[in-house]
Design a protein that fits this description.
Length: 449
């Protein structure tokens, strides 16, 4: 390749990041799913850069758009979306990726603009980024007086969401939480039924570092582990990547060998297969989900992990269930939710949510919990969990459920004391535990006929 040609080439990582960001913005796609698919297309360093660019831009989008507004002297929304995306990528590199020289960040972005639009657009990108490279100190949040607006811009969350959290948990916690949402999430995993501790330790510990979880038994955080070994162990079904707080759910469910378990919202199967592992595949587990295609993932996952007693059933848990009353020992409702506890992994969720979503989700969660509770046997246990930190989706759902179902009581001792909430459930936070934000609570049906 000639020098001039090379100079105009767009790097694979940046082009892939651009297209993922385009699909997230235009098609409502999820960045985590699209990033996971880059394994075959990009080499390891390009993949790492692509991950960093996509997640970084999404985590800082509001702040980056204010930078664009300042340097381009027009609102980011007035720009062609492809150019706005190119500028976000370029500005992210200039401000956050100090290992990339400013000249490379500018030139790569100009090449990208030429590739995805035309020459004129490249001129604009060049002018804006050159100015940005000269004025690297500018912080759009610093000049905002209103503290809520300042935090919203500083941490790139919609203002209404910041206000909502302040009303729930106060200013200080909200600030810590919002900042934690922009940090990378740790890689956490557990052994499956097939995984042998010695092998996993040997293969991952050799060139990397593993830390035992401080939150949940049997979980590890991987720090700088060789990614090829990690991928091989996952593909062989020997380990499963799962957030530590998410792993806590199967522990608090406490299923035992020989029991009948119903997992009402099971796909993609992280908790179902964990329950199977904890019971050594000696419990009968019915894995329900409304989406048949997602249940196929549960089946595949169980198969890969050597689990035989998981039975997927397509069902709508918002309606009457196809099982007899009081027919299960344990029931898990890991409800569909807003996912505000997972904003580090899924940063785009914050821009998609609208205030009205919570009432709608709460109504669905309440319906699922009511139907699922009917199949819990006397003295049997029912666990409700979400990866949302919102009170509407957790405390309010629980209170409504308890009012309508006096035959159930909360078993506060079933959740670890350090995470316990006044209601007797457990809540984890990214800024406190470093895990995802999760809520879980255990109910027991009384023994009376
Ligand atoms: C939070 S995810 C469950 C994650 C899963 N428990 C795991 O650990 O891998 C919620 C699931 O609920 C399913 N779902 C949504 N509405 C449902 C309904 N009415 N009945 C059953 N499943 C439903 C979704 O398809 C989704 O797979």
């Amino acid at each position: 390749m000639k020098k001039a040609e090379r100079a105009r080439r767009t790097s694979d990582a940046r082009l892939a990041a651009f297209h993922i960001l385009r699909r997230v913005e235009e098609e409502g796609a999820y960045s985590s799913i699209l990033l996971a698919r880059t394994t075959d297309e990009l080499n390891a360093p390009d993949r790492a850069l692509c991950y960093e660019l996509v997640l970084g831009v999404l985590r800082r989008q509001i702040w980056l758009d204010r930078l664009i507004e300042h340097y381009a002297e027009r609102p980011a929304d007035d720009l062609d979306p492809a150019i706005r995306r190119t500028l976000r990528l370029g500005l992210y590199q200039l401000r956050f990726l100090t290992r990339i020289p400013a000249s490379a960040a500018v030139n790569e972005s100009v090449n990208l603009a030429r590739r995805v639009r035309q020459r004129r657009a490249a001129g604009l990108v060049n002018a804006v980024l050159r100015r940005a490279a000269r004025e690297l100190e500018y912080d759009p949040a610093a000049e905002i007086e209103d503290p809520i607006e300042r935090l919203a811009v500083q941490t790139s969350h919609p203002r209404w969401l910041i206000s909502k959290w302040i009303a729930q948990i106060g200013e200080q916690e909200t600030e810590a939480f919002a900042q934690a949402n922009n940090e990378p999430a740790p890689i956490s995993f557990r052994l499956t039924l097939k995984g042998r501790e010695e092998e996993v330790w040997r293969r991952l510990q050799d060139d990397g570092r593993l830390e035992a979880s401080k939150i949940v038994p049997g979980a590890w955080r991987a720090i700088e582990v060789p990614s090829a070994a990690l991928r091989e162990l996952i593909a062989a079904g020997k380990i499963y990547l799962q957030d530590e707080a998410s792993q806590l759910v199967a522990h608090v469910l406490g299923a035992q060998a020989g029991e009948r378990v119903f997992d009402a919202c099971a796909a993609p199967g992280g908790k179902t297969t964990h329950i199977a592992s904890l019971t050594r595949d000696l419990a009968l587990i019915i894995a329900g989900d409304v989406h048949a295609h997602r249940l196929r993932t549960v089946r595949d996952l169980a198969h890969r992990q050597g689990i035989s007693r998981v039975h997927p059933v397509v069902l709508d848990a918002e309606k009457s269930l196809p099982f007899g009353d009081e027919s299960f020992d344990r029931v898990l409702v890991d409800a569909p939710c807003s996912g505000t506890g997972t904003l580090r992994r899924n940063p785009e969720i914050r821009y998609r949510l609208v205030p009205g979503d919570f009432a709608e989700l709460r109504a669905r969660q309440r319906r699922i919990l009511a139907h699922a509770s009917r199949v819990v046997r006397r003295k049997g246990r029912l666990v409700y969990s979400t990866c949302s930190v919102e009170f509407e989706e957790n405390e309010e759902v629980v209170n409504e459920f308890l009012r309508a179902h006096p035959e159930f009581t909360v078993v506060a001792e079933a959740v670890p004391a350090r995470f316990r909430t006044p209601l007797g459930g457990a809540r984890t936070w990214p800024h406190r535990e470093g895990s995802d934000g999760f809520f879980m609570i255990v109910f027991e049906r009384d023994g009376n006929p």
